[in-house]
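Dear support,

We are seeing what looks like truncated structure output for some complexes. This example has two components. We would appreciate it if you could run it in full and send us the complete token output so we can diff it against ours.
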Amino acid sequence: MALFKIKFDLQKRVKLAQGLWLMYWFAVIAGALVFAMGLFFKIELRKNSELMDSNESHFVPNLLIIVGLLACGINAFGGKICYDSLDTAKFARWKTAMKPFLISCLAFNALLILTALFCFMMRIPLMFTLAEGLKNSMKFYKDTDTPGRCYMKRTLDQMQMEFKCCGNNNYKDWFEIQWVSNRYLDFSAKEVKDRISSNVDGKYLMDAVPFSCCNPSSPRPCIQAQLTNNSAHYSYDHYTEDLNIWKRGCRDALVSYYGGMLNTIGILVILVTVLEVAVTVGLQYVNTAMSTLVNPEDPESESEGWILEKTVKETFTDIMAKAKAMRGSQVEDGEGGEGAVATVS
Amino acid sequence: MALLKIKFSFQRRVRLAQGLWLLSWAVMFSGLLVFSMGVFLKTELLRRSEVMHTTDIHVVPNLLIVVGLASMGINLCAGRICQDTMDVARFARWKNHFIPFFTVSLLVTSMLLVAMVLSYALQPNLEESLKIGLKNGIRFYKDTDTPGRCFQKQTIDRLQLEFKCCGNNNFRDWFEVQWINSRYLDFSNPEIRDRVRSNVDGRYLMDAVPFSCCNPGSPRPCIQENIRDNSAHINYDYQSETLNLFSQGCHQALVSYYMGLLNNSGPAVLSVFMAQMSVLLSLRYLQTAMSGVKDQENMEVETIGYLLEKGVKETFEEMKENLKKILSLNGGQVADEAAEATEGDAKASAS
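Here is the complete output from our reference environment:
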């Protein structure tokens, strides 16, 4: 009892082949789109790679690129088969290759689903990478004279302005590190000396944030220094003032930026998977319809098409039996070999 | 004596029609390009409209949008006409529409030239408009509580951050205006009172700039206050410190940005103009060549194509005659009606 059997006459076969050829072209374009998205995501990750840890993994964009290229190749090949399927002579060439090709299509569809899953799950390792990376970057903010780290200040400033964020979790992170280089501190001033001597590690910590934390939408000029001291500024209450500097932490901002991108890419990959499953099913119908012509000489004869020759259960038991048979024959060969060795020795 | 006569055999006519069909599709896409250039230019001008004083420059993108759409329509028609040359009966339908079609197309194409000329001629106007707009923007920076001006601060801050510029001509423009709202000044502080009193207009001027002037590429944290006071900051020399604030003025930055856009669009518009003119000229040749073909059976005759039936001067005279006839026809009608009216009056008075 075949699965989803359909009767085909010549008209139906022709329509199926043409429709499937068109769908294969759409699938090629979809594969190219997946490739482009993978490339785009890779470039976006590279742009902010200085803020990420050394554990930064480019696994997902690389996978997307490979899957996109594979999709283009497989779909182009499938389209060629479709194009040839209406001519029985040409189709005969592909007959032996059809079964392995369909199985590889199934495997590819499984890979696509896995890719989509990875896209949605990448948020979590990204969060950890960014947390570590941002913490270290903020520590190196002041080292504009150290080769290899001299651009960290500019990178962080531009990132805070672009993503509208301040600090790692929030702006208070800047209070815990020294972000003014010692070169620009006047050590002869009493205030500076007091502050440093009162700190355990000898760091110059302030109640201040860099200018890149300032919010342009604030109605008053930006207050960067003595943020928690209400009396230092006129008409200022740091508990109610929420427009002065960015309240959001940069880790949150970056994770939601990349997370949004990943969600979109994941949804796109799922749509591509649906398309791929459809073309695989269509190709199976074309294959079976072309192979079961009632009268092989007459191209206008009727034929039948199905997805599986027997029902799902029977096909499964068949595959299991075949696997056992293969394993059994291997064991027999092994035993025969051993027996031969035993007799010789 | 026809202008620029060319002999056309059947083969030549067919080739002309085919080539013109392809050319009209290509020029249609360039018309689309002109349209999208106009849209892009308009959005860019609208985005910064708050720092522009006048909107005279908007005539350039408006013209480009209209002409882009019109040229797309013209080229579609030209393609249609080319397709109809194979069928003499269908081609005859177009006969009466050719003269108005050509007049409209020539008008539209000349608008392209006008747009290009304007994009160069209105540049001084744009510079002036930006200068006044920026000056006002800086003056009203502090008025975040005045309705109608409350977004000026945000606009100027975002502008300075995006274009990496400070002030109108340079950062010293900020020293001459009070950019802190009086609401945030503590007038019980003697220092502030002194500063305000020492100023002629009672303004609170400082040696400071807003945070948006800060250059992220500076190796040291941004120095925004007491900029000209070397002793206020350690290891600081105001004359030699170039990376602290953005050194470019926003007027210069905006002007060079918009000049770049307009100057780049000029040659593109000129090339579209030439392509469009070539389509129109070829179409004229095709029309005149096809007018020699009388019916479907004798399609293979050789015909003559020309641009103008008579010379330029004679065509001009003819046009003047036609115009005079139309005008005098109207005048003659008026005279006749006047004569009838007087006759009617005479009859009425007689009876």
